[in-house]
Amino acid sequence: MDHINPSYRSKSRTKQSATDIAKAIIEGDRFALSQAITLAESTELSKKIISSEIADYLAHQSTNTSTRIAISGSPGVGKSTLIESWGLHYANKGNKVAVLAIDPSSSVTHGSILGDKTRMEELGQHPNAYIRPSAAGLTLGGVHAATRESIRLCESAGYNIILIETVGVGQSETMAAEMSDVFVLLLLPGAGDEIQGIKRGIVELADIVAINKADEDRLQLAIESAKSYRNALSLYHHPIIEWRVPVSMISGLQSLGIDDLSNQVHKFCLVSKEKGRFTSKRIKQDIDWLNKSVEQEVGRLIYNNPKVSDQLEKFKNHIIDGTRSTHSLIHELRLLIHQIYGNQ
Ligand SMILES: Nc1nc2c(ncn2[C@@H]2O[C@H](COP(=O)(O)OP(=O)(O)OP(=O)(O)O)[C@@H](O)[C@H]2O)c(=O)[nH]1
Ligand SMILES: [Mg+2]
User: Are 127 and 158 a contacting pair, CB within 8 Å?
Assistant: First the structure.
């Protein structure tokens, strides 16, 4: 069960300092962990400040040897069902498993992993597991930032297996790749041209491919698709030259092939560590994120500048009535921005 930190629990919410919350997280208090994730998801300035203080406190404290695994694939491919059986597999071996979702659609659907929790019923009750529903109402950048911070917070709380489910197609896969150590792509048994249904770029993100639902009457089809995916992937070079992307067959529903999948993740991390890529990839991910955040923030500031936004509105009308070329409008806008912020 959770540890209860008396100094943390005895204080009312408003009196809890960032240090109280951070200490409670380290002691394994799930409530404090959830509270810190909620703070990380907040757009309120005062909450952002507390969230940053917690993060800073934990940055000095946390020593972890976690594995961040992204699980991706088309809607309905069986990601949540796999996370239930894979998560249980890890949790039963004594690992602490955290499940997070990257859900850019959550502002519309209000957190679809909540629905998925029903597919993770047993895992949700396991003492070694923590499932965090996706936050609703965040912007794309907000989802990215909150998920990254949630990963860190879970690791500080001692979770060493982080399973990240991508929800929806497109943006969430890229985001997951930008914050995971291993990217697992799930595909369905089907003809070789199934690969066309998945964006080529997404296949190229994969470190491990698994043909899911390889059970019952789909088994034969799965064997054939595994073969054709292996052929297709043999033409492609993984960023780690020594790594050949494995294609395995699994069934999340019947817990088949889960050992094999865990072994592949383990092997991939070993190779990645041997090549010195594991840590350097995490550092690169953090630096890329820092750069991206600056771009977003600068963009937002410029966009919200009344001189720019007024001009932008006028320019939109020029596009609607067809009186000016977009090319020249962009040029004029660029000049205006340089005029306001200095031409460097
Ligand atoms: N036969 C079979 N069915 C499966 C398997 N895994 C999942 N399913 C079924 O496929 C459907 C979708 O499963 P989910 O786990 O919700 O799939 P998902 O990828 O998380 O779906 P989204 O979150 O909506 O993108 C459910 O009806 C599952 O019972 C499997 O290994 N074998
Ligand atoms: Mg799901």
Answer: no
Q: Is residue 130 part of a domain?
A: yes
Please check whether residues 295 and 227 belong to one and the same domain. Answer: no
- Residues 185 and 261 both lie in one domain: yes
Shared domain check, 145 and 124: yes
Of ligand 1's listed atoms, the one at least distance from the Cα of 250 is 31
Shared domain for 52 and 83, answered yes or no, is no
Element (H, E) at 102: strand 97-102
Give per-residue pLDDT as tens, 122-138.
999 999 999 998 877 78
pLDDT at 218: 93
Q: Does the CB atom of residue 256 touch ligand 1 within 6 A?
A: no
Listed range (78-92, 125-139, 309-323) with the worst mean pLDDT: 125-139
**Pair (71, 108) in one structural domain:** yes
Domain count for the chain: 3
Closest ligand to the CA of 213: 1
- Condensed to tens digits (0 to 9), the pLDDT of residues 265-304 reads 999 999 999 999 999 999 999 999 999 999 988 998 999 9
- In this structure, the answer to whether residues 100 and 49 fall within a common structural domain is no
Q: Which residues are found with C-beta within 5 Å of the ion, ligand 2?
A: 79-80, 116
- Lowest-confidence pick of 99-108, 202-211, 217-226, 271-280: 99-108
Q: Is ligand 1 within 6 A of the CB of residue 85?
A: no
Q: Whose CA is nearest to atom 13 of ligand 1?
A: 78
Within the chain, where are the H helices? 6-10, 18-26, 30-41, 45-61, 79-92, 106-109, 112-116, 121-125, 140-156, 171-177, 194-197, 200-203, 219-234, 258-274, 277-304, 306-321, 326-341
Judge if the beta carbon of residue 150 lies within 6 A of ligand 1: no
Least confident of 38-52, 84-98, 129-143, 156-170: 129-143
Domain of residue 323, residue span: 287-341
* Three-class SS of 36-58: HHHHHHCCCHHHHHHHHHHHHHH
Query: Are 8 and 68 contained in the same domain?
Result: no
